[in-house]
Amino acid sequence: MHNAKPTIVLVDDSAAMRTFFEQVALEADFELHAYASAEASLAFLDNNRPSLLVINVMMPNKDGYSLLKQLRANPLHQDTPTVMISSKDYAQDRVAAKELGVLEFVAKPISKKALRSLIEHYVDAGGGPRE
Amino acid sequence: MSEAYLRFWGVRGSYAAPHETHLGVGGNTSCVELRAGNHLLVCDGGTGIISLGEELVEADQLHQMLVVFTHYHWDHICGLPFFQPAFSPDWRIEFFGPGDTAADIERRLSDQMKAPYFPVETETWMADISYVEPHDDGMRHGPFEIRHFNVHHPGVTYGYRVRIADKTVVYVSDNEVQFLKTSIAKRIHEFEEDEHELLERMVSEQRSAELAAIENVDILIHDAQYTPHDYSKKRGWGHSCYVDTVNLAIDAGVGCLYLYHHDPTYSDDQVAAIHRDCLQIIAERKSSMECHIAREGLKVNL
């Protein structure tokens, strides 16, 4: 998908984090699809490739790793740019994320300033991921 | 129903500590037995599972069990290669733990027995071994109703909520309580004033999730590894300061807390001091919660 407006998908059970992203989306002019669970996100992700996928690690039922493994098995998402976020700032989790081809592992909390920088770094103004 | 009980076979974290100064509490690593009549559920396979296995073979009464693992860090699986029932054709053993598939679980448990780390592989296990296919709907093993949930520890780590004999027992061997709260406190300077409300909401969400997992349970067995002094140096190691553990349990309305996953460097006297401090916190907060040290060999009727 390569729209004029970048599309970012956030999967995070934290309502506060989803609000956080929504506020940044308003200021930064990208289309945000935010889901509270891995299961809910699949309805969109099964057929759509965002400019950037942001996945929280610890979620009830299907966790972020399981979700990303499932997506990577879909040809549509083999190379979808992905960032993982987590309150778990542990080396083992960073390694696990790296093994799944994640661009960056961001330990929560993340400021709006840092989130804007992250998006600018990984998503170009044309709506697609940076080459 | 026949007698139901839980028994601690290993209560140490990180590594076994069979020192004379530690034997009152116990030196074996994590393993808890839950028994209800002829049904056996085992939580974790640290060195404590070795003695459990010896007793089971000696007693020759039961011949099947379910073993659930919180995670695969070495101290929680290192007793398995010496677990006698696994080597006996008379036994049927099911294993469950973190993993996307039953094959994942099998691989994670068997890798430690591959050369050069061990002289024989799991193919030498003569018991009828099976690995439970992961699902989110919970499990039933005889009269045990078991649900797992994610906890805050490196890698995917589970806590287990077990319903048995009208009691709820929750086993959280490894968990770092309130980690996001302290992360925010350490990094608050990165945030603008108008972001603070959202940060408070995030802390509140995490607290609510922590409490919901253990709310009003009869018995909580929980990581209480560090003193405040040691936790100040070991924050981010995936374990709790006992002060956070006891306050969490009080806030959640837990009936009885067992302090667990004792640091291997702490002597019996040091663990006793931790226990006294916990009792003081409980008294200061005017809570009716019971609090005990999980000790090797301790049997608790359910």
Protein topology:
The complex is a heterodimer of chains A (131) and B (302).
Chain A: E1 7-11, H1 15-28, E2 31-35, H2 38-45, E3 52-56, H3 64-72, E4 82-86, H4 91-99, E5 104-107, H5 112-122
Parallel strand pairs in A: 1-2, 1-3, 3-4, 4-5
Chain B: E1 4-10, E2 31-36, E3 39-43, H1 48-59, E4 64-68, E5 92-96, H2 102-110, E6 128-131, E7 139-141, E8 144-150, E9 158-164, E10 167-172, H3 179-187, H4 196-214, E11 219-223, H5 228-234, H6 242-251, E12 256-260, H7 268-284, E13 290-293, E14 299-301
Parallel strand pairs in B: 3-4, 4-5, 5-6, 10-11, 11-12, 12-13
Antiparallel strand pairs in B: 1-2, 1-14, 2-3, 7-8, 8-9, 9-10
Helix pairs in contact in B: 6-7
CATH overall fold name of chain A: Rossmann fold
**CATH architecture assignment of chain A:** 3-Layer(aba) Sandwich
Say how many strands of chain B there are.
14
The overall pLDDT average of chain B reads 96
- How many domains comprise the coordinates of chain B? 1
Q: What oligomeric state do the depicted chains represent?
A: heterodimer
Give the CA-CA distance, first to last residue of chain B: 11 Å
Query: Numbering strands along the chain, what is their spatial order in the largest sheet of chain B?
Result: 6-5-4-3-2-1-14
So what's the overall shape of chain A? Answer: globular
Provide the spatial order of strands within the biggest beta sheet of chain A.
2-1-3-4-5
Assign a percent range to the helix content of chain A.
25-40%
